[in-house]
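Homework-ish question, so no full write-ups if that breaks the rules, but can someone show me the predicted structure for this set?
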Amino acid sequence: MEKREERNVAETTARRRQLADAAIATLAREGMRGLTHRAVDRTAGLPEGTCSYYFRTRQALLRATVERLVEVDTADLAERPAALGRSSDPAEVAEAVAEVVRHWATSEGERTKARYELMLEAGRRPELRAALDKAREHYHRLAETTLAAAGAADPAAQAQVLIACMDGLMFRHLTGADPLSGPPERLGDALTDLLRGFAGRRG
Amino acid sequence: MEKREERNVAETTARRRQLADAAIATLAREGMRGLTHRAVDRTAGLPEGTCSYYFRTRQALLRATVERLVEVDTADLAERPAALGRSSDPAEVAEAVAEVVRHWATSEGERTKARYELMLEAGRRPELRAALDKAREHYHRLAETTLAAAGAADPAAQAQVLIACMDGLMFRHLTGADPLSGPPERLGDALTDLLRGFAGRRG
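A: Not a homework solution, just the prediction itself:
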């Protein structure tokens, strides 16, 4: 009897995760306007009504989607270049930053697009903020540690600017402005200059 | 007869502009999902059916909204600090950049939010890109001129990073991360460091 219950819980968790992943893909492709319970069923290849069964309301679906997104983002970032937070060489840190930007804007472009959709939605639905804020604090700490290791003069304030810069580069790439085109070292060089500037005030 | 025709053209132009402004306000408040012809009529305080009469399709409404947004943005930017493109002092340029970011993220926050909604939509509807691309080229030229005047080593590539940084700061402020909180000089100082870094490679 207990075994069966455990199996049911595991199945429910897996199904909810599958639906949240399908919601992320739907959001990336069709935007907030295209995100419906039926569209998520179609994306997941599940019978109509499945998404409504697991997430009764739009709010429940959105919240699960944000939570799943944050979970995947955080796991992905944990595997990113060791230089983040550990190197004191601006060029090495800049290369690591550029790599995260490129990875999230290209291979993980769908998830990143969904994140911007959800961030705009969170501006209208404060109940979505908690999960996003937790992720933001995590990114901020990582950026601050990275900048401090690279000799930054004011890591806390400069981390805000560095994260904004990364977000802006990804957003612009995903919406057609393409700041990542051109030889890759040009972005790396511009970011190195930025990091040298952040360290400059100290010396 | 001709006088009357002229008056009709002027009235049509004014009404279309009024509807596009209402669409911008609707987008900022309710997102892409809330943008319907009826919602625009309500925002504009016009009888139901007006928006459909002037813009038969959703695409026509979206295109007019993007064009109006670009028109207002460009006019607004033309009135911004004289330091943009004319000063060689990093601290002065940083202050001007911070002022644009603050202005667009607060007093003009509605329009800026609508712009990000439209940029994401343009990723899905290439027919919206033309107007946005024209605006982007304009911003890029302005950023490049500004950086060149401030002694930047590679104004073209660095302009991409500067604009991304401004976009990211506004986006994050509008979606609740608030990088503009805290004493205003901290953002100014971080941007000054960035500009000094951009100039540093030269010297």
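Now go work out the reasoning yourself. Hint: The domain at 62-200 of chain B is CATH 1.10.357 (Tetracycline Repressor; domain 2).
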